Amino acid sequence: MTEPAANGTQIWVDADACPVAMKEILFRAANRAQVLTTLVANQPLQVPASAYIQFRQVARGFDVADNEIHQRVQAGDLVITGDIPLAADVIDKGATALNSRGELYTRENIRARLNMRDFLENLRASGVDTGGAPALSQADRQRFANELDRWLAKRPKP
Asked: Following CA atoms 31, 33, 35, 38 in sequence, which dihedral angle do they give, to the nearest 10 degrees?
């Protein structure tokens, strides 16, 4: 097996909230495409033994994992996150952001997503029950895998 290149594009995973099904898709893709994939979380996680998969534990605290990813991400990398402010930050750095439902955050849609997030936060703060996200579906898993494959196919090879 070839060792991952230190200077190639890589995948960063905001792992505290990443569903297990998506982690499994990422693990298979990391090995198949030989792309370094780093999971960042503030609690211990088990990851498969692989030269392409690593885990970085950070201290507990608000946005500590997000800040770690933001600090380390490089242009061209992929970040898996449901955190819209983190997605906006990594897009500004030239990286790609994808959520676990397979929705790609882009320069064109991220501001609208931030505005909607803020609006819903204000509603919740005023006592309005905005409900939660629906459970992940098979279609979500497929959309996620398809977007991941598109990114892998487009990325520059080290």
From this structure: -50
Task: Give the tens place of pLDDT for each residue, 50-103.
Answer: 999 999 999 998 889 999 999 999 999 999 998 889 999 999 999 999 999 999
105-126 burial code (b ≥16 CB/10 A, e <16): beeeebeebeeeeeeeeeeeee
Cα 32 from Cα 14, distance rounded (Å): 21
How far is the C-alpha of 29 from the C-alpha of 35, rounded, in Å? 8
Question: Which two structure tokens, joined as six digits, stand for 111?
Answer: 């501001």
With a threshold of 0.90, does the pTM exceed it? no
Residue among 121, 147, 150, 122 nearest 22 (CA): 147
Radius of gyration of the chain (CA): 16
- Rounded CA-CA distance 106/109 in Å is 5
pLDDT tens digit string along 97-126?
999 999 999 888 777 676 666 666 766 677
Secondary structure letter of residue 57 according to DSSP: E
DSSP states of 109-144 = THHHHHHHHHHHHHHHHTT-----PPPP-HHHHHHH
